[in-house]
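COURSE: Structural Biology Practicum
ASSIGNMENT: Worksheet 4, Part C
STUDENT ID: 0417
INSTRUCTIONS: Below are two proteins. For each, the amino acid sequence is given first, followed by its structure token string. Answer the questions at the end about the second protein only.

PROTEIN I
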Amino acid sequence: MSFNDKVVIVTGGSSGIGAAIAIEFSAAGAKVCITGRDKKKLDNIAKKCKNPLAIVADIIIENDLKRIVDETVKHFGKLDILINNAGMALPASILSDNAMEVYDTVMNTNLRSTVYLTHLAAPYLIDTKGNIVNISSICGLTVIAQNIFAYNVSKAAINHFTRSVAAELASSGVRVNSVSPGPVMTEALEETGEATLEFLTQLTALKRLSETKEVADLVLFLASDKAKGITGSMIVMDNGALVNAD
């Protein structure tokens, strides 16, 4: 797939799935804007991309979201693809004293920032007949762990937001889809230890964890003309975790 001259924003591009997506888009010829809060990590990923625009930004800050869109369009002249990838999970039971604090933090990071950045980017995407890919999770479709209710709710909301915006923007020629990975071997997941990795592996029917590049390859397919008939879809890549749960 070729993305020559396409301009792509990837949030949360300094590590994990977001970094893999940014690197793959760049390798396919795209002009990539990557965002993240950690400048050192962001710079390391930027070195693996060709002439990227790297923006240190916190997606829960509205002015930072405006800056991401404004600087991207100013630097590259347009916007073709938005990848809403940045997100977080914090543990909390509904009975926890900090339940609402965790809920607000997770929802602001995972959902509100995606909604607002999409709102800001949509006019430019309409101009280019571009598309959006939101990174969701199978946790938006089933409950794997009970102590991350806020994360589960945020990803379920991302899925319905995807459908809602896909329906609205279809008449403008803009496609909107989401990808719901199961467990993916990221740096953060590796740090949880062998016991957790084995537990997550056993949750899947294929008894394996995805690599970040696998998710990136799926995202690039959905963002390409090969997927021109796909919008409002939630594509699951979970090595059969949902099937296994059934």
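PROTEIN II
(use this one for the questions)
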Amino acid sequence: MQFLVFFLIFWQFFDFLEASKCTDCIASGKHWCVTVNECGFSPCATSISKSLNCPELPDKAHAYDDNFVRTKIVPLAASALNPNPEKCFKPRLPTMTLSKKFSANCSEVGPQSNCFSFTSFDTTQKVLVMSFRGTDSPLQLTDEILDFFTGKKQFFPDAGNIFTYFYDAFFFLWNAGLQQDIRQLKYKYPDYELWVTGHSLGGALASVAASYVVHTGIFTSDKVKLVTLGQPRTGDYDYATWHDKNFPYSFRIVHRRDLVAHIPPQDGADKLFHHRSEVWYNNNMSTTEPYHICAEADGFYCSSRELDTNIADHLTYFGVFIPGWQTKC
């Protein structure tokens, strides 16, 4: 037993050492060759040129839990598609209570395009929840795509930039009452954990929301669990860097060849980049299927190796057809 404990500690230290070598190598202006674990080795079949892609897994204290996501996060994320979300999560999370719902026009210049979110709390599990709805219509999707060409907005001076549509959408909801309610919930339940989630567009808004409440000091990052499903790229490299430094528990779940998880493009004019940690299910996501936690943030690894992306995998997560979830309530 003692040997096993020593081995696990040594192996974790070895992973940390390799990540540090990779980071130092890139900082020196060279590339890290994954194939031979050497700095600047050439020719190299697989190399890393960005420090966020240096292999690093979540620490053991904040490990990914498939059952937690499957039984608690998915119902909360999918419930945001129902105008009355409590009807959806009550059968699966009977101790969860809806706090408030928020709807706002989240298009600054385009036609009416509503975004939706809700807050809830559970005095048994001692948690608060912010859940955000994904893209609700073809019109909204078009608005998002067109808005990509308008660039990005600064989130915080030390926390990079956010894709304009996600930035605006979050603050429209935040100013529509979400801020007041989450502050009141935090005041009433100061020691509770905060779960933040969403699917698709909702995943991007969840990322921004979690980052905002931590950066502004409403919550400390050790009290926040961020789990998103099919999240598109949300901010630039600086945003991803800040996020990774501040969030011990943050997982982006990707189903097989989900197209949305790879847009907007990483190499566009705004250099958008995913934050950690991707959890890739290269299967139908049944309870017996395996998953892979990607050690790199956003390179040609894990789901990015799949060039043949599709929308079907985006619409179904953990066996749940997300757009049809409200019909099950």
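ANSWER KEY EXCERPT:
Q1: The mean pLDDT is 87.
Q2: The chain has eight helices and 17 strands.
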